[in-house]
Amino acid sequence: MIGPPRRVLILGNSHIAAVKAAHAGAPDRWPGLAVTFAGGHGDALAALVVQGGRLVARSEAAAENLRLLNDRDDWGLAGYDVFVVVGCQVGIYRALMPYRAGRFLGLPSAAQPGPAVPVSRAMFGLAVQEQVVRSLGGALALRIRAGIEADGLAAQVMLAEQPRPSFDCRRSRKKFAGLLRARRLGDGAVLTEVFEQEARAALPGITLLAQPEATRHVGLFTRPRYSKGSVRLTANRHIEHPEDDFIHANAAYGALVLDQIAAAVG
Amino acid sequence: MDPMTHPYSDLPPEAFWRSGVAEVDPAALTSFYVPKVKIGPQTRIATAGSCFAQHIGRALRGAGVAVLDAEPAPVALPEATARAFGYGLFSGRYGNIYTVRQLVQLLQDVQTGEVSEAFVWEKAGRFYDALRPGVEALGMDSPEEVLFLRRAHLAALGRMLAEAEVFVFTLGLTEAWIDRPTGRVFQTCPGVIAGQFDPARHVFHNFTLPELRADLQLAFDLLRGFRKRMRMILTVSPVPLTATASGAHVLPATMHSKAVLRVAAGEFAGAHRGVDYFPSYELVTNPAARGRFFEANQRSVTAEAVQMVMGAFLAAQGLAEAAAPSPEATPPGPGEDAEEGGVICEDLLLEAFSR
After folding, report:
1. So what's the ipTM on this one?
2. Chain B residues bordering chain A (beta-carbon distance below 8 Å)
């Protein structure tokens, strides 16, 4: 690494906790990155907008949540070289939403009977793009990208995909029925490919950091060892998710995301 | 016998041009339509036809009528995108059906379930259903995908037609392009949206009155094959031709086409108890309106006209109280060359070829 570390603002919802935990556990592992975290519970980041060259919360409730977690509620765009949105609903579920109702030729299940109706691959892709653009993370990344361009800045914007549910979600069949059905039908690999292709198309000027390959299981899931021991998003406390949380990833996963960011910074 | 009595002496005011048309607000005509085919909020209606027919489906839905939709948009898309993909325009995703022959062919396809790779068009590496090339705005990945979706389309229409009690069809054009080896009529001329025009294969045809009569009968018989007592409401689109390939000037070509369609529809309705004709064409082209029901391009029908026509239809059917139609007739933006007044019109693409 030559030159000063790149100033990176990592924004995210509960999924940012994995990255925070990884960074807190080994702060010197990424010497090229000077990281600041901006976490927000739930959809607090939906209220984050660019105003006068700063990211600010447009609702007091969101500002309060941001202050609680980050000790601040606004960030100047010019203060960072890289913005990374983590999780925030941009994940395989964006493809599963249209998948519930439509099947395109190319999916192994396309010819099988069921409630989903045939649709074109192109239209399915547009539906995925629509889901991505409307999602918390997609919309936030696009707002940041637009703010950077409006201010004539050269910062990079990245979006780190939300991790897929742990393969252990088989223990909660009802809650993850759609995902498990897609696996049973053999559609995981195609859905993954479609999601990533369409998410990139939906987010021009934004680098998509797809879920690290080593953490994936049959396209639709996260290997359980990257989920076990995941922690909640807090200001600075260490609180693990309950054992039946299959949604969040752990610090080992977060470390791989930081590796991706380090590799992707220009 | 009173020498002053004759067949005209006791006629009502609407029987005379002056009192029935010239001195009446063209947006407030009355007594011009007494429905033979009655519909109510529970009547299951299917709609099809030229782009003007899209207004009919929308107005009926707005009035709370049970307009069937065999193929609702299955995935979350913004409404405009869904419409660009042919969803929500008619009772099936067949796009505009401009000619009666096109309707006959579609109904026959639904009946047999047959699809053919001969009707797959290609453009820039994308593939299109030649019989409804406008419904997949981005084209499809392969000929197999075209056929996969066409099979599903035909199956969905079969289910819908078995339910339909009234089929509302708007006759739009007499001019069409025919595939000589197969006799199939296309929705648009090959080469306009996709495919390649081949003068040796693709021939122009202007349907005649006898052909229209025969096709209307065939279409009606086919419809009743899906549901025994299905009834029809026919209308004629007041929208002039975008372009004619007949060799004539577009004005007489339009008048010829509309006259033939009007006569065919009127005669057919007059000859069948289960078929009605609604005079939307006459309401819009009424000379007393002095052209006010057309936009500045003298072709697109105004929002006022759509509201007036559909309001009159709903009022005559006793459905006007249910809801007012919302025509959404906003002028098209620069990129909306195939969408006019909130309706999708493939034939507008022909305008791009005018010099």
Report:
1. 0.83
2. 71, 74-78, 81, 85, 136-142, 144-145, 148-149, 152, 156
